[in-house]
Design brief:
InterPro entries: MetI-like, MetI-like_sf. This protein has 13 helices and two strands, in the order H-E-E-H-H-H-H-H-H-H-H-H-H-H-H. It has helices at residues 2-15, 33-38, 41-74, 77-88, 95-106, 111-118, 132-156, 160-168, 173-184, 186-200, 204-210, 218-227, 232-257, and strands spanning 19-20, 26-27. Mean pLDDT is 86; it is low at 260-266.
């Protein structure tokens, strides 16, 4: 842990207080300029856009994933493994290949546009790629299992006697869900939201491929500073700010939950 985690993070913290060299190297000159640059309107806008799309992705995966996880947890046990495997198997394929597959499907000459035209729903191909919506679809697809699996684990642990007791006391199915099932699965909801929100801040390749570099998020900014601009100190400073923001979000989530998140849902 010290070698693979602590040392790299300490190194990133160290160079974040240095300056970029003339030829793209690092000058060992202490400076706070990198952190001051982050609070310029341009970079604040990128940070807000990143939080916005991460929040939207988290909500969409939650609303899509909860009913799916609930159904999987309630089907007969002999079919549950198959249902879970149907979620996991596609992710044995490289994520870049799956992203390119979505690009082919959503292109102007792709399957989706061809089907819509043949059905008479549209007269000309829709421009779906290189938009905010395309990035959102890619994010939801990539992170869907990270929401479903914690929810499934949390829902499966609920004993039927609690639901039966609520019904015996006069609760209808909706009220039993809201007062019993939903509170008991809150650890899974929080865990799933954390597992989706945090990676969605840094999935730069989805924005590059499906957004056509028109959608700039904080992950793209960090990648560009290290690989394109060769401004490692500024890229390190942005990375540190993002890590601090993530720690704050996790702390707030645990505080709102009111208890420690059940680590078994991970």
């Amino acid at each position: 842990m010290i070698f693979f985690m602590a040392v790299p993070i300490l190194y990133i913290i160290f160079i974040s207080f240095l300056q970029r060299g003339i030829n793209g190297g690092i000058d060992v000159i202490f400076s706070l300029e990198n952190y001051k640059r982050i609070f310029s309107p341009l970079y604040l806008r990128i940070f807000l856009d990143s939080v916005s799309i991460a929040f939207t992705t988290t909500l969409c995966t939650l609303f899509l994933g909860y009913p799916f996880a609930y159904l999987v947890a309630k089907i007969p046990k002999r079919f549950r493994i198959l249902a879970v495997m149907l979620i996991i198997i596609p992710f044995w394929t490289n994520s870049l290949i799956r992203t390119y597959a979505w690009m082919i499907l959503m292109s102007t000459g792709g399957l989706i546009n061809n089907v819509l035209i043949k059905m008479g729903l549209i007269s000309e191909p829709l421009k779906m790629l290189y938009t905010y919506g395309a990035v959102l679809v890619g994010m939801i697809y990539a992170l869907f299992p990270f929401m479903v699996l914690p929810l499934y684990t949390s829902i499966e642990k609920i004993e039927g006697i609690f639901i039966d007791a609520a019904k015996d006391l006069g609760a209808n199915p909706l009220k039993a869900f809201l007062t019993v099932t939903l509170p008991l699965t809150m650890p899974g909801i929080i865990a799933g939201c954390i597992l989706v929100f945090i990676p969605s801040l840094g999935l730069f390749y989805i924005c590059d491929l499906m957004g056509g570099s028109k959608v700039m998020l904080i992950g793209n900014l960090i990648k560009n500073q290290f690989l394109v601009s060769r401004d490692w100190p500024f890229g390190a400073a942005v990375s540190i700010i993002m890590m601090i923001a993530i720690l704050v979000i996790i702390g707030i989530s645990i505080k709102l939950l009111g208890k420690k998140i059940d680590l078994e849902v991970f």
